[in-house]
Amino acid sequence: MRKVIAILLFSIISTGVLSAQNLETVIVPKGLSQIKIVHSNYTTSFNASYKVPNYVSWSISSDELGGAVSRNGYSFTEDPDLKGAAVSPMDYSRSGYDRGHMCPAADNKLNDDYMRESFYMTNICPQNHTLNEKTWANLENACRSWARLSTVYVVSGPYFEGKPKKYLGNNKVAVPDGFWKVILRQVKGQWHAIGFKMPNTDVDDIYDHYVVSVDEVEKLTGFDFFSALDDKIEKEIEASTDLKSWSYNGKH
After folding, report:
1. Where does residue 84 rank: exposed (0-12), middle (13-18), buried (19+ CB within 10 A)?
2. pTM for the whole structure
3. 40, exposed or middle or buried, with CB in 10 Å at 0-12, 13-18, 19+?
4. What's the half-sphere exposure (Cβ side, CA atoms, 13 Å) at 151?
């Protein structure tokens, strides 16, 4: 379905309609190493030089939260759609780093295709274990909670401070210095956006401590997020670091 939507993207943009595919579109700098692959429930921009995604984009709706597919029985695997830039689950073996999902398996429980594709290595980065199991996971859970109220549009990826300092495996997978995530939603006609930036180290498990504006993530990455929105709205919400507007049941 997502591939069909991608084919229709030009006509959607030309009519000014805000579709999920439109809102998930990321504008990247010219010259960026990029192999773009559209899967059933997410799009990945894979960096052939670093062997990790530049970004992964997807949306979460309340309907998708009702999926019952378990991650048990699925294994990390090479992406069959990736051409000319090999990366293998074995590259991470005994490295001390987790195979960290950018688009989490728990966001892909609606059907078998979603779940299987979430384990493709084009959706994976070397991630500190504590970060992956605690703070990053807590933020992923928050995104799903926010999606119960309205659809959320998410883009996530790694960042590097200069050239990579460490590589893993035979395919030389670059270890990121940290990770970012930007999130968009509309509630009662009002758009809200928020960003997060976390180092790839042992960190405390309170994701609130890592809030940044979407503008800051754009400055960090050189990417342009949520450009389909009206320019005035985009400028206003991308400057915000107010997590209060994202609360649910009195909590973040």
Report:
1. exposed
2. 0.90
3. middle
4. 13
Tokens of 74: 């699925």
The pLDDT tens digits for 194-219 are 999 999 999 998 999 999 999 999 99
Q: Which residues pair with 181 in a beta bridge?
A: 156, 196
Q: Is the dihedral of CA 240, 245, 250, 252 positive or negative?
A: negative
Rounded Cα–Cα distance for residues 202 and 216 (Å): 22
**Residues 9-61: pLDDT tens digits?**
333 333 345 676 789 999 999 999 999 999 999 999 999 999 999 999 999 99
Bridge partners of residue 195, in order along the sequence: 182, 212
Catalytic residue among 101, 129, 209, 252: 101
101 carries an active-site annotation: yes
Rounded (5°) CA angle 5-68-135: 85
What residues contact 252, with CB distance under 8 A and at least 6 apart?
142, 207, 208, 243, 246
**Closest by Cα among 32, 53, 148, 67 to 101:** 53
Residue 33 CA to chain centroid, in angstroms? 18
Query: Could you read off the pLDDT of 127-182 as tens digits, one per residue?
Result: 999 999 999 999 999 999 999 999 999 999 999 999 999 999 999 999 999 999 99
- The tokens describing 183, both together, are 């999130």
